[in-house]
Specification:
The complex is a heterotrimer.
Chain A: H1 2-10, H2 12-44, H3 58-85, H4 88-120, H5 128-149, H6 153-185, H7 200-232, H8 237-243
Helix pairs in contact in A: 2-7, 3-4, 3-6, 3-7, 4-5, 4-7, 5-6
Chain B: E1 4-14, E2 17-28, E3 32-37, H1 43-50, E4 58-63, E5 66-67, H2 72-76, E6 79-82, H3 94-104, H4 111-120, H5 136-149, E7 154-158, H6 166-181, E8 185-189, E9 201-206, E10 209-213
Parallel strand pairs in B: 3-8, 3-9, 6-7, 7-8
Antiparallel strand pairs in B: 1-2, 1-4, 4-5, 9-10
Helix pairs in contact in B: 3-4, 3-5, 4-5
Chain C: H1 15-30, H2 33-52, H3 57-80, H4 82-90, H5 92-98, H6 103-132, H7 140-164, H8 172-199, H9 204-233
Helix pairs in contact in C: 1-6, 2-3, 2-6, 3-6, 3-7, 3-8, 6-7, 6-9, 7-8, 7-9, 8-9
The chains are: A mainly alpha, B alpha/beta, C mainly alpha.
Chain lengths: 247, 214, 235
Amino acid sequence: MMWAFLHKLASPQGFYALSARLSPWCWGLAACLIGGGMIWGLGFAPADYQQGNSFRIIYVHVPAALLAQSIYVAMALAGLVFLVWRVKLADMAATAMAPLGAGMTFLALFSGAVWGVPTWGTWWQWDARLTSMLILLFLYIGVLALRGALGTRQSAARAASVLTLVGVINIPIIKYSVEWWYTLHQPATFSVTSRPAMPAEMWLPLLVMVLGFYCLFLAVTLTRTRHEILRREASRRWVQALTGEGP
Amino acid sequence: MSLQLQARNLACERDGRWLFGALDLEIQGGDILRVEGANGSGKTTLLKLLSAQSLDYQGTLLWRGEPLRRVRRDFLSHLLYIGHASALKPALSALENLAWHAALAGQPSSEAERVAALATLGLSGFEDLPVGQLSAGQQRRVALARLVLVRRRLWMLDEPFTALDRDGIQTLEALLSSHVGQGGSVVLTTHQPLRVEVPVNRLHLGEEGVDVTT
Amino acid sequence: MSRPERYAEPSGANRPLIAMMRRDLLLMMRSPGAWLNPLAFFALVITLFPVGISPAASVLSTLAPGLLWVAALLATLLSLEGMFRDDAEDGSLEQLLLAPQPLPLLVLARVAVHWVSTGLPLALMAPVLGIMLALPSGSYPMLMASLALGSAALSLIGAIGAALTIGVARGGILLSLLVLPLYVPVLIFGSGAVQAAIGGTPVAPHLALLGALLALALALAPWATAAALRISLNA
């Protein structure tokens, strides 16, 4: 029963049918959560006693940064499933996720830079988290570039999966080494973890935003995977029946 | 120890295009299988599947009755594969190149054996020249000297006649005949008419499908 | 039936490894450019920094550890492209994949030769360039040790990228895109070790971490490289 369901899910056709029913809900939920969280966070949450209103950028920055890392891990998991069990759908999903992950990483960097102006008085600071986020962006660019450069799909998919797995092993190493580097060079600056805990009226909207971003990720991945399925399976009978084009 | 490589219902797809499908074949000691087909019909791909280089296929490949994936190492220790490219280093001499090939195959050779192998292919006097200075046909002969030097029962040769002159073709045909006569087997691709003293199985890959004739 | 003695089973498990390293070293001697060019590149890049920044020893000596490490890293990167490309083009790689030996072991042999021909010479040459950058005395042994240790990790990690980009025409830039982000931790601990030696703080943690990175790369990179080689060759 369970296996039959998984098997149906792993076949492009089964997934296509299932995702058609799921993705409107994901889009709707993402819109509600992000819209609600935005209004709550920007309009009603209290201002920070130190940073004033500029802290509100956290409501974009933190969800984007979380998603940037989660998407890479999700891509690596998909790559593993593809390499070990040869599930083509997993690679289609990984292909669909990569640009969104790179976009989220860029958004996290950009919002971090904008946040830097009122807090540090500069657009860019070689802060540990910004630096490792920048390296994560390069990891994403590497995966995208490799997929772009290897023409044929089967080998490009495998190569990208191997690279993503190598990258995901390196992400924690990079993170810790950058933190180590930062503390050696900047021993005196304040660290965010020692700040007083956020009051609930500040972090609740953040939680809503984080959930909204994850729903958005799900929705985008479902929709883009559907497009990828149609593109790759264009020569199959069921797709041709769907689009009304036949041989 | 009998030699037997079987393909059952072998099919291969590359990026949405079926190169071949429902291919059944069997190679035993004393067989020569000649794979024919137009350019791009999948000859080299088939050879890569049969030589366990690529695991990207549907259907079954059996080596001595066991799935090829599982007995890959045993299979490889009986296989001699000479590909399209000659696998020679231009900066090394013919003797040095052969020494590496023999050692890689786990069959260390003496210098006398290597010299003799080159002599069989008509390359006496060229042993110590860097391979880069030899002609294309001579380089092909150096590569084919592995057939004499490295003792393996199953040969897979991708276009082995390329660049050979008439003399070289005859030498190779004689090598093929004697190998098969001793119970070895050969899979090869070529456009060349093949004159050997044993019956040749032919496999034709093409648009209209696959047919096997003897 | 065949005469059995003609078809002796292969024996001597590590003989192919030795043969492979011997061949690679021989090739290295025959074409010295492969190992001399990265050294020349290293020296050239180091020359650019005083010209581009300032000739003042006070400025250069603070920057020296980082400059030396970055330049050595780039020189290693430059040499990566040749690691498997020639073998892929002339068909030798196909033969490696068909050898009865496990491919990761053969990869390890290749990486070892790569390190001997690039990482080790770079580490040996670094003190000379250190003098030119006014690197404070007392840190020279650490410079060499960290480069020798770190460049082995660089060769191992780089092999994965080199294997993935064999099939890509003009893959040099792509290779650096793939590999450079992965080099960051090695750079941090490597140049950190030299800076610690200059500053008089303990160097042992840096070296230990560098060693840990090397151990991890040693355990995982040959497998990833072998997988990548199979993928690239069957494209």
